[in-house]
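User: Good morning. I'm curious how PRP would be positioned relative to this chain. Could you predict the structure with it bound?
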Amino acid sequence: MKPLRIALTKGRLERNTVKMFEQIGFDCTTVHEKGRKLILPIGDNEFEVVLAKAADVITYVEHGVCDLGVVGKDTIIESGGSFYEVLDLGFGICKFALAGSKGIDFYRGYASKTIATKYPNVAHSFFEGKGMDVNIIKIEGSVELAPLLGLSDAIIDIVETGATLKENGLEVIEKVCDISARLIVNTASMKLRKQEIDTLICKMEQAKEAKQI
Ligand code: PRP
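Assistant: Good morning! Here's the predicted structure, ligand included:
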């Protein structure tokens, strides 16, 4: 049987997932010694880890070239897609928030507001839910710059510790929703390799529970 392929979001989620795999008892030496390699066998060669950018994790799982993926709920909400979201992994915890300059009275007045964000779909549905018409400007990184430079009235972005907002004179106006890492599964793999996938989900769930005690 070929190994189950798991796409991991490179960086923090990758490191947390590897910790979880090691807690389960999978040998992840290959990942620690990866160099520039992007596909790495782990465990007893029953699994293969693929390192990818968040949005690409969804693409690979959706197309079935990876059976499973670990990706943030932020990317899932923004990108959507057709796959099963089977487990909240309990790490990568942060939130989406509307933020602006300290003391801003954001909802005051009727003039249309401009929002900068890396997540235009999230921003669109948040304001649609409020019946507010806003201009959304897509920014690729360090969104906090937009209100500081006068490009936008506020931002919708990920807040983890709040340090970036604080150090730039910004504050949360309103929480949009909570975020954490999720395990996703290709719909065909879920049927074709159900037993192996169920066993893995079960082990990951147990590792998550054990961590919380
Ligand atoms: C994220 C996010 C904030 C920051 C929040 O950016 O977009 O800028 O982290 O974290 P904090 O609340 O702990 O300060 P990231 O580090 O992913 O970099 P980017 O802005 O270049 O995407």
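The CA atoms of residues 9 and 76 lie 12 Å apart. The chain has a mean pLDDT of 96.
Let me know if you'd like a different ligand tried.
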